[in-house]
Design goal:
Layout lengths: L14 E2 L6 E3 L1 H5 L5 E6 L5 E7 L10 E8 L1 E6 L2 E6 L3 E4 L6 E5 L5 E7 L9 H4 L5 H4 L3 H14 L4 H13 L3 H14 L2 H6 L19
Antiparallel strand pairs: 1-2, 2-3, 3-10, 4-9, 5-8, 5-10, 6-7, 6-9
Length: 217
Amino acid sequence: MSERWVVRKLEDVTSFQNPGRARWAQIRSELGITAFGINAWESTESEQSLIGKHDEVGGGAGGHEELYVVLSGHATFTVAGEVVDAPAGKLVFVGDPSVEREAIAREAGTTVLVVGGKRGESYTVSAWEKYAEGLGFFGREEYDKAAEFFERAHREDPSQSRVLYNLACAESRLGRTDDALAHLAEAIARTPSFREAAQADPDLEAIRDDPRFPKPE
């Protein structure tokens, strides 16, 4: 092994995890990969969201085509409304960036490798990954720092709906109800799938009983 090549066990890759959520192994940044996006997600319990519902054309997305490889365990994907059973060894390729997809782990320890890039173009880091560093403040319950991080990110790029959603979560934790509701509404207006995510997000529990909170459709 030298500066020209690297060997690493997946379990040793720098990871990020908030309580109750899947572990994110940050493969691309850990290995210094610049030609394509690659990360892995490992469930910590059964029936856990492994790949959140999203498409690759919404706020924070990179317009990527994506390949999902189930390395271990058992997952269920929903792609364009179609359910796909995905035990270890199954490949799921979504070439159309506009197609909505998600995956649920059917058992703890389910690991999915995700590889992506924009067809015909040089790779650039997606906005969601660029700003994902701020999620670590939630795991450490440093909600004031999370709010500062996502406020700054929002000033840098006001178009990112995921930044707005995470800012709303931090503000909810800090008791800033009016700001949280306003930013959540704006995030949902840009990316409607956040409406469903908000219904069970523990970071938004403090504002869920407010009559202004977005209700499920």
